[in-house]
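Trying the structure run again after the queue cleared.
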Amino acid sequence: MERLSTHYYVTWVAITVWCILTTTLFVIYGTPKPFAHWNWVDILGEGGVTIFVCIWLILILKSRPDGRVTAYIIYGLCFIFFHLWADTLDEFIRLPKSISWNNWLESVPFPIGIACLTLGIYYWHQEQIAISKHLLKRERHVRDHRLFDALTPLADANYFKIQLDDIIQKFPQQEHCVILLDMKQFAQINQHHGFKEGSLVLQYVSQVLTLNIKPNDLVCRLAGDRFVILLPNTPLYRAEHMQYQLSQVIELSHYYSESNSVRIPLAVSSACILVQQPTAKDVLKTLNQTLHRNKNNLAKAHVIYEL
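Done. C-alpha cells:
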C-alpha cells in the first residue's frame, strides 16, 4: 500500500473532479442528444479508448514505484483521459455553437498528455537500459517474466533451455560450455535452520555466482538447490577453471544464519562439459550424468582414503 500512497489517490481524485466538473458543465449548458442521433461508432471508439486508458493507469499505478518515469506516464495518461472524456460527453450532449470552451476541453489536454507520455517513455527507455545492464548475467537478449524463478533473482530452467538452444543453433562452430553446481547437504540446512533460511541461502548463492561470472555468461536456477551456468564461446579448459573457482568462492564464503548469526558452511558438487549435443535437453541430460559420476568418484576416493 505504501507504493500507492503518492500518485494513486491524487490521480483518482483528479480524474473524479475532472469528470464531475466537465459533466456538470455539459449538463448545464447543453441538451441531451436524442437516442436516434447517437453515433455508435464514435461512442464505442472514444468510450472504449477512455476505458482502456483507465486500465493502463490502474496497471501502472499498481505495478510501478514512485519516480520520474511513473509521474510523467501518469500525467500523460491523465491528460489524454481528460481529452477523451470530454470527447465522449460530446457524443451524448449537444452544446450550443456559441460556446467555445468545449473545444478547449477537447483539444488542449491531448497534446499536453502526449508530450508528458513521450517524456515518460523516454525516461523509461533510459531506465530499461540501466535495468538491462543490471540483469546482464541473468538474461540473454530475451526477457520473459514467466520464466523468472520465483525464489531467486535468476531465470529458471526453461529460460536456460531456450537460451542454450538458441546458441547451439546460431553459433554451431563456436565452443560453448555448461557448468552445473549442486549444493551439498542442503537438506540438512533446511532441517536444522528452517526452510526460510534455506531460501536465503539459495538467494545468497545466486548473488555470489552472478558476481563471479563474465558479462556474457548466464546463470540460472535449474531446480531445487542446483544452479546452471552457460559459458558462450568458452573453451573447456577455461570453463573447468571457472568451475573450480566458483566452487572455491562458495566454500570460502562466510554466510551467517539470519536468526542466530551462526555461520552456515556452504559447499557444492560440480560438473562441467563442452556442449556437443544437438539440443539443450540432451546437454542437461549429459551434464546430470557427469555430475552423478563425479559424485560417485568422489565418494569412492573418500572411502579409499579412509582405508
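The first strand starts at residue 31 and ends at 32. Worth checking whether this holds up in the mutant runs.
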